[in-house]
Write a structure and sequence with these properties.
One of its GO terms (biological process) is cellular response to phosphate starvation. With 347 residues, the chain is of the alpha+beta class. The protein contains six helices and eleven strands. Strand 2 and strand 3 form a beta hairpin. The two termini are 30 Å apart.
Length: 347
């Protein structure tokens, strides 16, 4: 299951579990109360019958003066005794019989009933878990089918996008050699943007071979800064770091990681904001003055978004590629202040 499927499963499971378990627990509680009332009524009936004959070993009795303030024909349960008062048939106007039931026997029965209820309660919990899991998985089936259709659709898009996008970029480059119109630059930049989306989808749905390249980090980052500065002219993008420094890494993967991070830094920045890129032999830092990230623990989850913009795949792709080539990604963010992303080269 992916992140969204797990989230939906947990929510559906919780909903079914709470609903089913609550109804079952209420039913068990009502059953327990009814059993107690039935037992007490049965005990009171037996005491009433005993008060007429005063014979038997189950109950004890005592003859008392009639007290009209005392409840008659009512089972009374106290900390040390269980009894009921009845008018004495020989002298009902002046005397009454106190019939007593052994307190330990009463507690023994109640404890047995409580244990039975707890066993039923545990059985209810186990059955509810199984039913909730079954219903939750059943409700996920349509969503999983939809996700599968979407993934197949995206795979087809990846296949079909390659040729037209390559044609747009190639022809716009040829036009740029002959003309210097701003419109042609916009076409080329738009083609590059589509290429970035295409490559993101390609990363998700195709396992491409990894080859090591010798990348001039200063030149590479300068090119990416210049590219995003063209896309976001209202922002200030700066590069800080050592000159003429090279690292051994797959260039395409590094470009996907850096481009996705720079795209987020620019896309979710404030008006006239800043993006600073710092680098050395062991890391690249991208610092922005954007809106910040609220849920840092979810940013790498597939399709997770904090706003309506985007597909929610960029940082998931960053994490996927980083794990593939041995790069650690560290993110610090404050809502309303900005985000600081560090790429650590582990290999």
């Amino acid at each position: 299951m992916n992140y969204r499927e797990k989230e939906s499963f947990i929510k559906s499971f919780s909903l079914f579990f709470v609903a089913l378990f609550s109804m079952g627990a209420i039913a068990l509680w009502l059953y327990h109360e009814e059993q107690q009332r039935f037992y007490q009524l049965q005990l009171l009936t037996e005491m009433d019958a005993f008060s007429y004959v005063l014979q038997g070993e189950e109950f004890a009795y005592a003859i008392m003066n009639l007290d009209k303030d005392q409840p008659i024909h009512e089972l009374i349960v106290k900390d040390t005794e269980v009894y009921a008062l009845f008018p004495w048939v020989r002298n009902p106007d002046n005397e009454m019989v106190k019939v007593t039931y052994p307190h330990q026997e009463y507690l023994k029965y109640m404890d047995a009933e409580s244990r039975k209820i707890w066993m039923l309660f545990l059985s209810l919990g186990f059955i509810t878990v199984l039913l909730s899991a079954f219903f939750a998985r059943y409700t996920l089936t349509p969503m999983r089918r939809s996700l599968l259709l979407m993934e197949n659709f995206l795979k087809d898009i990846i296949h079909d996008l390659n040729t037209p996008v390559s044609s747009i970029l190639l022809n716009s480059q040829l036009l740029k050699r002959k003309y210097t119109d701003e419109e042609i630059d916009r076409i080329y930049i738009s083609g590059q943007t589509i290429t970035g989306l295409y490559k993101n989808l390609e990363v998700l749905y195709r396992q491409l071979p990894i080859e090591q390249d010798e990348v001039r980090l200063d030149t590479f980052l300068h090119e990416r800064i210049r590219y995003f500065q063209t896309l976001y002219p209202s922002l200030s993008l700066t590069l800080e770091g050592e000159r003429e420094m090279s690292i051994s890494i797959n260039r395409d993967i590094l470009m996907r990681i850096v481009d996705n991070l720079l795209s987020n830094a620019c896309k979710y920045n404030r008006s006239n904001g800043q993006v600073t890129v710092r680098y050395d032999q062991t890391s690249i830092e991208i610092i922005d003055t954007g809106i910040g990230i609220k849920h840092l623990d979810k940013v790498f989850h597939r399709f997770y978004k904090e706003t309506e913009r985007g597909l929610g795949m960029g940082l998931h792709i960053v994490k996927t590629l980083a794990d593939r080539v041995g790069i650690a990604i560290e993110i610090e963010s404050q809502k309303g202040i900005g985000t600081h992303v560090t790429i650590h080269f582990l290999r």
